[in-house]
Amino acid sequence: MEGTEGARVQVAARTSGDRRQGYVVSPGFQNRFRAKLLMVALIVGVIELGLSMAVSYLVENPHLLESKMVPLWLAATTLLLCFFVVKLCDRVSHRVAGPDYRLRRALEAVQRGERIGPIVLRKGDELQDLAGALNATLQQLGAMEQPKD
After folding, report:
1. Number of structural domains in the chain
2. What residues make up the domain containing 73?
3. pTM above 0.70, yes or no
4. How far apart are CA 96 and CA 101, in angstroms?
5. CA 133 to chain centre
6. Backbone dihedral region of 124: left (phi > 0), alpha (psi from -120 to 50 degrees) or beta?
7. How far apart are CA 128 and CA 121, in angstroms?
8. pLDDT at position 61
9. Among 116, 124, 107, 118, CA closest to 143
């Protein structure tokens, strides 16, 4: 028990001065995430600009509103835009959520005492570096299955 408490003290002492100085702690990941988020914002902005111009045109030409199709078209376009944004956000977030799920399942298996195979993430997934570091750590601890020959 004494060894465990000593280890906790050492870890606490080691991490107490380890404070992040800024918001960019993983430039590669954060820059890719920013780029994707800005892409979504740009697409939404362009489509909303088009919708605003359409509404402005309708205000200047109220006789067009006599047809129920124009407001229906605007509503349908807005709903499609919302659907598109949700799907795009799902796609971007899946590149982080998927690896997070895989890493958690692997750690839970190790906690249960199981030996696991290497953690392999899909091409394009984020957290590749973390998966590699975890694979190396599990290999070193002997918690990883040896390759079958």
Report:
1. 1
2. 27-141
3. no
4. 9
5. 19
6. left
7. 7
8. 82
9. 116
